[in-house]
Amino acid sequence: MAISEALLQKYARLIVRTGANVQPGQVVQLTVSVEQHAFAAMLAEECYRAGAKKVNVDWSSDAVSRLHYLYADEDVLSRVLPWEEEKMKQMAQDLPCRIFIASEDPDAMNGVDVQKLSSVSRSRRRVMKPYRDAIDGKHQWVIAAYPGVKWAKKCFPDLNDDEAVDRLWEAVLSTVRVSEDNDPVQAWKEHTDFIEKKAAWLNAQGFASMRFKSANGTDFSVELIPGAKWEGAGAVNSLNGAFYIPNMPTEEIFTSPMAGKCEGTLVAVKPLSWNSQLIEDFSITFENGKAISCRAAKGQELLEKMIHMDECAGMLGEVALVPKESPVNRCGFLFYETLFDENACCHCALGAGFKEVLPGGDDLSVEEAKEKGVNDSIIHVDFMVGASDLAIDGVRPDGSTVPVFRNGTWA
Ligand code: ZN
Question: How far away, in angstroms, is 232 Cα from ligand 1 center?
């Protein structure tokens, strides 16, 4: 493989030091594919160098997960075993830093029943929820990527395995600001400072709603939740004050809009990969906050199915601002991985919102957050609307407007 050991080391260090920001004495829980065992060892060593007390590894395998879903019964998969619950209890005690390495084959779950997938994850989530809630906001975590062969071949089907992986590495490293001759830690400091400054500006504006318009037919307005924050880049562990970056890369500043309060049409500017299938050249029209119709040149049925996955799947859970100069956008291809694709340009998401954007949101239940306007659904699907001429206006409570985006970037 063409990527040098030195560059990999730099990347591993960035994930551990800037992403998870592992503190001396902390336990680290690393989730990584068996195929990336060498990188796992590199990360583990970086964690120990940062002072980690212990690094635990959860090994995953796309191929085996797929077999579970093809062969095992839904109720068997849905059941959380006592030892799994014990493990979560331990996690709620240790509050480990969590590092997730994404390298999946985007087609891994091809042919698996979508309903089975989501109902298994829903059942498991119900049992795991108290533990998730217990660690929420009290530990650092990060998701970063490591190009696997199948993933790379999905992005570059015409290249051979090695070439495809090299191309994907090149792209991944450019989006996470790692190069031979830079200091990525410093590059990330500048990047997160910029995003935080923009988020602070948006929060100071106190917009009541946002209007989106572009020549492709996007003509849309959405109400915001009074007091809900625009967030981006980093987060802070409320227990120890450690600043961490949950997603690498990250370019977006996002909020959850008022569920059920939007009107108009959003036209997608990039294909959407959902459950290993593509939806292309599509638009969604909203009335009274709900998707009432959609059109797609390809994948119309799938899009309709998505919108009707449950009662609230046709409502928005996220609005996110990403300037068109994003390094992900500059790569110019579809990654088939939300971690990257949602950082290409401005987007909205159908389905669940984020309660943490509400004041004191970490301590609210999903039901309480819903009452305040944060949507809840089994889906959360981002779709890109950041046309190169996209104009976004913020509307103040008194009706006056402020330009936020012009020509697809900050005004
Ligand atoms: Zn997003």
Answer: 10
